[in-house]
């Protein structure tokens, strides 16, 4: 059991919903040392539960959302935003004041969740991203004022099992988290697609271009993480010789306003997130 999962050793963790994100998080918890018998999962259809049960035979599975809510200390609401109200209806009359409810649904606010679960319910909003499926996720977290310090640490441990978690103290910033990391993998995929296509058109075999682009992205990300006290701009300057090939490429990107394009893309994502949140919270 890892040190962070040690925080959950006496806790029960439940999942409402058994989709890819739920399966990834519970898989990460089990891999980190949390016993499968400490985890409860509910889902309307049998197929996903059977697949999880086959992989983790001692996992507790059910079609009854209320059974999960009644048995756990940490309740992950891993359903689509438009299905949140229906899923929570099954346990709306329970006293969840000692249960930390953790929403994985984009845009559903703490106010909406407490309206569904009760004003005294500790609520955490999370925004994991798809690399969580392979243990490289980035998850933004926000807690309401009912969440205790112990529950915050345990929530961090849950998402650290599939990557890295970071708290924000202003709920409005969850839209920015969505723009930067929730939607972020697709931004990097587009850049990598462009690099690979450019490499192919300049003569590289597709496999070679793809391998070089992926390893370069991985290496650049690792350098940023391993040099936390250095500006990313300094890392860029360190590998840019005046008049060299890298400088020529960067001049082209800057002349075509790449930083402004990225800023506009993030602003568009934040705007759309707020629009979707209004729909989800009606």
From TrEMBL:
Q: Where would you find this protein in the cell?
A: Cytoplasm
Report which reactions are catalysed by this protein. Answer: L-proline + NAD(+) = (S)-1-pyrroline-5-carboxylate + NADH + 2 H(+); L-proline + NADP(+) = (S)-1-pyrroline-5-carboxylate + NADPH + 2 H(+)
Pathway entry: Amino-acid biosynthesis; L-proline biosynthesis; L-proline from L-glutamate 5-semialdehyde: step 1/1
* UniProt keyword terms in alphabetical order: Amino-acid biosynthesis, Cytoplasm, NADP, Oxidoreductase, Proline biosynthesis
Which Pfam family is one of this chain's hits? Answer: F420_oxidored
In this protein, which residues make up the domain named Pyrroline-5-carboxylate reductase catalytic N-terminal?
12-107
Q: What is its EC number?
A: 1.5.1.2
Pyrroline-5-carboxylate reductase dimerisation domain location is: 171-276
Report the record's Gene Ontology biological process terms: L-proline biosynthetic process
Q: Which residues bind NADP(+)?
A: 16-21, 78-81
Task: Give the Gene Ontology MF terms in alphabetical order.
Answer: pyrroline-5-carboxylate reductase activity
Q: What domain of life?
A: Bacteria
Q: Where does NADPH bind?
A: 65
Q: Which GO terms describe its cellular component?
A: cytoplasm
InterPro entries, A to Z: 6-PGluconate_DH-like_C_sf, NAD(P)-bd_dom_sf, P5C_Rdtase_cat_N, P5CR_dimer, Pyrroline-COOH_reductase
The record's comment on protein family reads: Belongs to the pyrroline-5-carboxylate reductase family.
* Known function: Catalyzes the reduction of 1-pyrroline-5-carboxylate (PCA) to L-proline.
Question: What protein name is recorded for this chain?
Answer: Pyrroline-5-carboxylate reductase
Tell me what organism the protein belongs to. Answer: Kangiella sediminilitoris
The uppermost taxa in this organism's lineage are: Bacteria, Pseudomonadati, Pseudomonadota, Gammaproteobacteria, Kangiellales
